[in-house]
Amino acid sequence: MKYEEVMSVQYGGNHYKDRKIQPWEVWEAYDMNGWEASAVKYLMRWKDKGKPLEDLYKALHNVQYLIAREERKQHVQAQKREGQSAKIFEGVLQQLQQRTFSTSEIPEETSVFKVG
Predict the structure, then answer these.
(1) Which among 19, 20, 27, 59 could bridge 42 via Cys, Cβ 3.0 to 4.6 Å?
(2) What band does 90 get if pLDDT is binned at 50, 70 and 90?
(3) Span 57-75, average pLDDT
(4) DSSP type of residue 46
(5) Whose CA is closest to 48, among 6, 10, 13?
(6) Residue 79 in this model has a pLDDT that exceeds 90
């Protein structure tokens, strides 16, 4: 089937077919994932499908999932950054602990015990 033929057919109603732009075209143009695409689909049809609140709640549920997924991703990234910072700090601390200082390297004003 050609593209135009596929786009001219809708099963189960006409709540997409009668639109100037079909949800599929939006999904493709914006390279949307399933949750984004579903939210758009429900928002495009909520006034016409016969169950407006149900479709709005479905759209909201998809957006809530996207928010939760993004928050989780940012949390994991922050943990990785914190872990990297901790590793850097531990490395510097180990280097300082391994280094031996001679008394000539310690400024006299910082010395706890004065000789002489």
Answers:
(1) 59
(2) confident
(3) 96
(4) T
(5) 13
(6) no
Other Cβ atoms within 10 Å of 46 Cβ, number: 19
Position 41 confidence tier, pLDDT thresholds 50, 70, 90: very high
Indicate if the alpha-carbon torsion angle 45, 47, 49, 51 is positive or negative.
positive
Give one DSSP letter per residue of 49-113, joined into a string. Answer: SS-HHHHHHHHHHHHHHHHHHHHHHHHHHHHHHHHHHHHHHHHHHHHHHH----GGGS-GGG-SS
d(CA 37, CA 25): 10
- Closest by alpha carbon to 27, among 37, 18, 16? 37
**CA 5 from centroid of its chain's CA atoms:** 37
